[in-house]
Design brief:
By secondary structure, the protein is an alpha+beta fold. The chain has a single domain, classed as 2-Layer Sandwich (Beta-Lactamase). The protein is 34% helix and 23% strand. The strands form two sheets. A five-stranded antiparallel beta sheet has the order 4-3-7-6-5. A two-stranded antiparallel sheet has the order 1-2. The N and C termini lie far apart (48 Å).
């Protein structure tokens, strides 16, 4: 009986140790999850045209440690941002990263590149990198962001990971 209890506790301890990395890993979005969520959001936006849904903090577009945000390439403004509502309507060329550098120094070129990748040979989105604070933080971290044009709209749907 004593051996059985030791075996049971040892098994429980091993399971807890084995599950710790899984639980920690669930809090951080992966690049694959970001690509899938951006594709889903771009498809939804293409069908509905409803940008407002991407401004809500409590939505399926905000998950783990990341979120979907939307750029309007016709107006060259941020169309939706659930974490930083102060950016909505802001000219893309005026948005700076945590180091003070413009994220979209050439908004026209950015939009053209994303649209070309959507319809061109690659049929994929565009990855960019810049320094941006994680939600709830003030200090910037290196962020890799995936951008995809929402077909039939002026919008680019984006989300990122902090490696």
């Amino acid at each position: 009986m004593f051996t059985y209890k030791i075996f049971a506790w040892a098994t429980v301890a091993l399971l807890l140790v084995a599950m710790c990395p899984i639980a920690v890993g669930q809090d951080k979005a992966t690049a694959q999850e970001v690509i899938a969520k951006v594709k889903e959001a771009a498809s939804t936006l293409s069908k509905t045209g409803d940008v407002a849904q991407f401004n809500q903090k409590q939505s399926p577009w905000v998950w783990k440690d990341t979120y979907i945000f939307v750029e309007d390439c016709d107006k060259k403004v941020m169309a939706a941002h659930p974490i930083r509502p102060d950016l909505v309507g802001k000219d893309l060329s005026s948005i700076k990263d945590a180091r003070g550098e413009n994220i979209y120094p050439d908004a026209e070129g950015f939009c053209k590149s994303v649209r070309e990748r959507r319809s061109g040979l690659w049929r994929s989105g565009l990855w960019t990198g810049y320094s941006w604070p994680k939600p709830g933080e003030k200090v910037g971290s290196h962020k890799l962001t995936y951008h995809l044009s929402a077909e039939g709209t002026p919008y680019v749907v984006s989300s990122g990971v902090i490696p």
